[in-house]
Amino acid sequence: MEKKSEINGHAVANSASTDRILEKSAQPSSREKLMEFLRKNLLVIMTVSGVLVGVGLGMMVRNMNLTKAQMTYFAFPGEMLLRMLKMIILPLVVCSLISGAASLDTRSLGKLGGIAVAYFLVTTLIASGIGVALAFIIKPGVGAGALNTNSLGLESVSSNKETTDSFLDLARTSFCFTFQYATDYKMVAVGNDTNGTILYQKVPIGTETDGMNILGLVLFAMVFGVALKKLGEEGEELIRFFNAFNEATMVLVSWIMWYIPFGIMFLVGSKIVEMEDVVLLVTMANVQAEEETSPLVTHQNKALAATPEAIESVL
Q1: Where residue 219 sits, what CATH number does that domain have?
Q2: Cβ contacts of residue 10 below 8 Å, gap of 6+?
Q3: Is the Cα torsion angle 251, 256, 259, 264 positive or negative in sign?
Q4: Contact 53/268 with Cβ under 8 angstroms?
Q5: Per the count of CB atoms within 10 A, which of 22, 81, 131, 194 is most buried?
Q6: SS3 of residue 41 by DSSP
Q7: Range of the domain at 76
Q8: DSSP for residue 149
Q9: How many domains in the chain?
């Protein structure tokens, strides 16, 4: 029996021309494709446009010689964007990790965890290798050491931290999510030598810096999710609570995403306005670094400048 198609309410026998007409009528027009593309990528387009507008806005405002108070007011929408993102980090990380860990099968968690750790180590090693190679090639920060000198009015920065203490700080920080642990040092007198000179010893002292400890939060959330899964039926209600909490957090994230194009415009603009002092400091640091790293060239220039005077005095 011959199949029939329907065009405009009329039955038409199937043929090659009929199929082509149906396919052509089913294909969307260029305007519909454009509208569909804009609908799917509207947020990305608005964000990129916000960055470009922010660059132009910053270049215009930079020539207006704003005061410190006016610059603070100008940067307020961008500051609100950063505060919104910081606000959502804690519930987003904790709830998503607890829900994910609680939904996994505890018997397959060991294998999956091993694969995740292996993937993390391999990608970290690759990223570290690329970073070290690029650092040797590009040599970033050459001459920026002068920024730590007192001639620029900045405090000197000490970075002589032991490698062992860095690993110990990482382990200490992993088991606390209310603060970050950092090792500092102080010199303690331990006695005198044969000449009567006081001997000092560098002693590590633990310091706690305020701020959100993401590493501790991640470890606690994963272990807590596994513990809820181990409880069985008793932990199901709490797992459902964190699942609902995670869904509500994602709704908040979607709301914040629509503020990003507006906030990022003022964030980029304010950073461009504040770049003037940074350029001045880097320029001064480069000049001072060139003078410190090339004393022979400086000495030769001074000698050449003094040569004509010396010849005239002899003659």
Answers
A1: 1.10.3860.10
A2: none
A3: negative
A4: no
A5: 81
A6: coil
A7: 40-139+160-275
A8: S
A9: 1
Residue 293 lies in a domain: no
Contact between 295 and 110 (Cβ < 8 Å)? no
Query: Distance between CA 111 and CA 98 in Å, rounded?
Result: 18
Which two tokens mark 281?
Answer: 């400091």
Distance CA 230, CA 238 (A): 12
CA neighbor of 78 nearest in space, from 259, 223, 253, 220: 259
- pLDDT value for 168: 81
Start-end of H helices in the chain: 16-26, 30-40, 42-62, 68-74, 76-103, 106-138, 163-174, 214-231, 236-257, 260-273, 275-293, 295-314
240-284 pLDDT per residue, tens: 999 999 999 999 999 999 999 999 999 998 888 887 554 554 555
Residue 53 lies in a domain: yes
For the entire predicted model, the pTM comes to 0.59
Residue 6 within a domain: no
Q: What are phi and psi of 192, to 5 degrees?
A: -120, 150
Query: How many Å apart are CA 96 and CA 225, to the nearest integer?
Result: 10
Does a structural domain hold residue 102?
yes
Q: Write the DSSP symbol of residue 185.
A: E
Spatial CB neighbours of 265, under 8 Å, sequence gap ≥ 6: 50, 51, 53, 54, 57, 77, 78
Residue 58 near residue 273 (C-beta atoms within 8 A): yes
Pairing of strands 198-210, 4-7: unpaired
> pLDDT digits over 21-50, tens only?
556 556 677 788 888 888 888 888 899 999
Q: How far apart are CA 114 and CA 119, in angstroms?
A: 8
Residue 226 CA neighbour count, 13 Å, CB half: 11
Phi, psi dihedral angles at 156 (to 5 degrees): -70, 140
Indicate if the pLDDT at residue 14 is higher than 70: no
Task: Tell me the average pLDDT of the chain.
Answer: 75
